[in-house]
């Protein structure tokens, strides 16, 4: 299920970069992915960025929780670094 969610989200974000987002939105999205500790509902320049970043953060957090159950260690930071 994690793979399917990640694959779908990858397609959505890729399309956003290819045709959907303005330069400002793309810049903000990249900054959010680097900082990670932002409040998307307050710091966003658009609803498009807020929705996509919230989805990325949610799925990565979910993957981290599930991985911890199986591995007994946190992998969330590793997943964040690769996103």
From TrEMBL:
Record domain Terpene synthase metal-binding: where: 1-81
SUPFAM superfamilies hit by this protein: Terpenoid synthases
Protein name: Ent-kaur-16-ene synthase chloroplastic-like
Domain of life from the UniProt record: Eukaryota
A GO cellular-component term linked to this record: chloroplast
Keywords for the protein's UniProt record, in alphabetical order: Lyase, Magnesium, Metal-binding
Organism: Prunus yedoensis var. nudiflora
Cofactor(s) recorded in Swiss-Prot or TrEMBL: Mg(2+)
InterPro entries the UniProt entry points to: Isoprenoid_synthase_dom_sf (IPR008949), Terpene_synthase-like (IPR050148), Terpene_synthase_metal-bd (IPR005630)
One GO BP annotation of this record: gibberellin biosynthetic process
Coiled coil: none
Classification via Pfam families: Terpene_synth_C
GO MF annotation list: magnesium ion binding; terpene synthase activity
